[in-house]
Amino acid sequence: MNEKMKTAIIGMGNMGSKYALMIAKKQVCGMELCAGTRITQERLDMLAPYLPEDFPFYQSGEDLYAAYDKREVEIDTVIVVTPHYSHENYVTEGLKRGLNVLCDKPAGVASRQARMMQEVYEAARSLHPFLRYGFVFHQRTFPIYIKMREIVKNGKYGGIRRIHWIATDWYRPDAYYRSAAWRGTWAMDGGGTLLNQCPHNLDLLQWICGMPSRVQGFCHEGKYHQIEVEDDVTAYMEWENGASGVFIASTGEAAGVNRFEISFDDALLVCEKGTLRIYELDRPEREYRTAENNLYGRPQMSLRDIPVEETKEGYPALFNAFARGEMIADGAEAVRSLVLSNAIYLSSWERKMVEIPTPGSAYEKEFESRFDKWLADKSK
User: Fold this and answer.
1) CATH number at residue 326
2) Which residue in 59, 143, 238, 290 has its CB near the most CB atoms, within 10 A?
3) pLDDT-based confidence at 288, cuts 50/70/90?
4) Pairing relation of β-strands 301-305 and 160-167?
5) Do 265 and 243 share a structural domain?
6) 166 and 125 in a common domain
7) Are 299 and 187 found together in one domain?
8) Do residues 87 and 223 both lie within one domain?
9) One domain, residues 89 and 237
10) Which of 39, 72, 42 is nearest to 57 (CA)?
11) % the chain with pLDDT above 90
């Protein structure tokens, strides 16, 4: 696709209008903004200097698709930036029409939605081989996380033994939850900090370290705020290779921190405050552990900073990659972080460890059914 993608944005609220402005100001070389839906006067005033006077706005995604069906608007790409529950409908309706789709995170509320969206894409691609379908997990473009993944993949320090990510810098005051009726509700928002603040963390965790095989979650609902959903989470995870990990997140702690540690056989990698450091052993840990005569021997460590490029705004990088046909995070990838999120919820609700389902397995459908039932009960 050599010409610019004729792009419509479904949902021009806070993030949708940000994406629209980015495209309208030509920060995305391969996209042309051609239509939008649901915009306030304030955001329209912000965009107006960059848009033609006859720029078409529609009341809803349904109205946009109806106009497309009647050939009243010319588009080949939609960007979905609507409430979580509606992602499935707008994504699948776009894909069925042969439109490229870029969807904001998360892929939905339930992993079943994300799986079904991917299945619709695979069916649509049989008719449209060059169809593009991706998600806005822009933090995958950050050099510091790219470097962490590279270190894990090259195996220089052996396998992963433990991960620890504490992300309590998502602080939100009560005013945040009072700002809109849907915030902090199961029926309209679909979840709390796991679904709203942490999709990027969970995506990066599995992208860098691989998908855990089982989790035990502890989700505390309304611990710090007068809301229905969780604002404090601790999740214990295990991987098939024996590695374990803990993920902690909260919107009620100040001062919060964001520290991501990966313990290898022979090193400790630490990501915090935009810096990446590694503690390297002078020789393999196993040599110390299996030594016969040294009762208190322990490895010597050296600490060094790992140089990484400065982190720049990730959205233009992801949008430009999408326009070139490069998926930073495709639909199949987006399913994984939502499965992990759903498993943490389900484990907390059932008060037991939950196995992560294998895609396509019978257990996957059982897992989805259990989650859907619990979510429906919570949303009443």
Assistant:
1) 3.40.50.720
2) 238
3) confident
4) unpaired
5) yes
6) no
7) yes
8) no
9) no
10) 39
11) 92
SS3 326: coil
| Strand ranges inside 205-283, DSSP E | 214-221, 230-238, 244-250, 258-264, 267-272, 275-281
Region 246-258: what's the mean pLDDT? 96
C-alpha span between 73 and 32 (Å, rounded): 13
pLDDT of residue 313: 87
According to DSSP, the residues that pair with 77 across neighbouring strands are 7, 100
Rounded CA gap, 73 and 34, in Å? 8
- Both 49 and 80 in one domain: the answer is yes
Strand ranges for the chain from DSSP E? 5-10, 31-37, 57-58, 77-80, 100-103, 133-135, 160-167, 214-221, 230-238, 244-250, 258-264, 267-272, 275-281, 301-305, 354-355
- The domain in which residue 43 lies consists of 5-138+316-330
Q: Are residues 40 and 187 in the same domain?
A: no
Handedness of CA 255, 258, 262, 266 (dihedral sign): negative
Residues 6+ apart with CB under 8 A from 122: none
CB 140 within 8 A of CB 147: no
Statement: residue 11 has pLDDT above 80: yes
Q: Which residue has the tokens 């035990």?
A: 216
Tell me what the mean pLDDT of segment 14-31 comes to.
95
**How many domains does the chain contain in total?**
2
